[in-house]
Amino acid sequence: MSGVVMRELDVDVAVIGAGTAGIAAHRAATAAGARAVLIERGPGGTTCARVGCMPSKLLIAAGAAAHAARSTDLFGIRVSGVTVDGPAVLKRLRAERDRFVASVFEGLDALPDGTRIAGSARFVDARTLVVQGQAQIRFRAAVIATGSSPVVPDPLQGLGERLLTTDTLFEIPDLPDSLAILGAGAVGIEIAQAMARLGVVVTVIDAGDTVAGLSEPALNRQAIEIFGAEFDLHLGARVQGAAADGDGVRVAWTDRAGQPQVTRATRILAAAGRSPNLADLDLEAAGLRVGEGGVPDFDRRSLVCSGAPILIAGDADAWRPVLHEASRQGAIAGANAAALAASRAVEAPAPLPGFAMVFTHPQVAVVGAPHDPEDQDRVVGGMDFSDQGRARVEGLNRGGIRLWADRSGRLLGGEMLGPAVEHLAHLLIYVLAEGRTVRSLCERPAYHPTVEEGLVSAMSDIQRKIYGS
Predict the structure, then answer these.
(1) Which of 115, 183, 258, 433 could form a disulfide with 272 if both were Cys (CB 3.0 to 4.6 A apart)?
(2) Where does the chain bind FAD (predicted)?
């Protein structure tokens, strides 16, 4: 821009992105003694707090409250006249969401002057960034932590306000009368169940054969039956196009048999995943080798990219796009960026076992090594919640657990569908990280009556198959 003098900075570490990974990276680099700068394009507040895990859980909590109020007959409790005030539901959601976002901004505001720069950054070369024509930054190492954005498939383009993504869903003033959702993964299924419980007519369309990230066939079948009882669920279906239809949208799709179908809804939600925000960085100028999806080649232990003293963390690397991984990767990347800047050796900690949760009711968790029916060296054990004591007491006796171990009895991973599996999954992830065996775990008691007994039952099943006892 004519007449504008570009500010010049020389730093040890430049962190691009002020989300969960970027904040963790900046903190770690500074703690390691590096002179670090944090570049934020906005809107900030982290994906989790602003448009991800926190607002979605607030919507789920509202849906669960409505469902619980309508489901008391099992216990001999009669409740009538349950109504849902859509604007009030969304008002509380946004108020609580804004509290979470404000706490993030408070942390950023506490950073020393001169350590934050607002604007979009792009690489000039392997040691230089330009921030929106305002500043030129020379760095010794950089961290890419630019996050991700919702994917909008081509058939849904051009719908204007009729199209929702997780970036816009939580801003609507009232619940829609009906909602079509493209995607039966974690986000799609969570939103679908919550909306259905709040009185919205929901249709979910997905080209795949699984829901909520499950791959173990028996659990996946149960999940399809459970969720399909609350809203219209169409798997093996493909959206062909969508168009405005009065105040709503008309979605044309084909079912599993290839037959044309039409769904009309007030709004449509794209829940087909998120893609890394990398397109505007000019990674090639930095000398990075860019692979599938525009993601640079990088080492999954050290997070160092091939070709330059640049690291990548969080959703930007498209590896494990969940908050705890973003925070962990950010800390690793920041510390290693400081090491590179000081010509020290970088650390390459072993990745933690994979860990994903879906906060539906029943909940879903996928932990460790994925289901592999072709692996003949695995032993699979399981249990069913239908007759599990605590689950029956609470009226939540749906779903089950499947765990797999090697022939020595060392646990490898598992999938869960049931009550309180967010807690059972944490126990399992600790077990996997420690390399424990089912025999050692079956020797530990589980308090009665708790759902933790279900986890012990699944491990005992493996032990019987390996040891005969």
Answers:
(1) 183
(2) 57, 146-148, 315
